[in-house]
Design goal:
The chain is α+β, with helices and mostly antiparallel strands and 100 residues long. It is built from three helices and two strands; from the N terminus they run H-E-E-H-H. This is 1-acyl-sn-glycerol-3-phosphate acyltransferase.
């Protein structure tokens, strides 16, 4: 799932919707951030699909630790909507430094 959208604009702040957090909280499952980067940048938002980089792109996946959604729900007195807002804030903080 891509809570920031499928293609983020490099060097721009991200705006997350709460849908991914709502699903994770209500399902009671842990989630994991997986960061995908591509150098040189290709197929970024606002790029033309036919603008191909001169060199072959290298993709890197960074797998982060699990986020315990049940613990967040417990901290929020079992209120799913409050827990989803908190989880969205956590995701935004962790993702913000990785949009490049």
């Amino acid at each position: 799932m891509f809570p920031e959208g499928t293609r983020s604009i490099p060097n721009m702040p991200i705006q997350l919707k709460r849908g991914a957090a709502q699903i994770a909280i209500r399902a009671g499952v842990p989630i994991r951030i997986i960061h995908l980067s591509c150098i040189p940048s290709t197929l970024a938002k606002n790029d033309k699909w036919y603008k191909i980089p001169a060199t072959k792109p290298i993709f890197t996946l960074t797998v982060k630790d699990l986020i315990d959604t049940q613990a967040i729900l417990n901290e929020c007195n079992q209120l799913p909507s409050v827990a989803a807002r908190r989880l969205t804030k956590i995701l935004q903080q962790q993702l913000q430094g990785h949009i490049d």
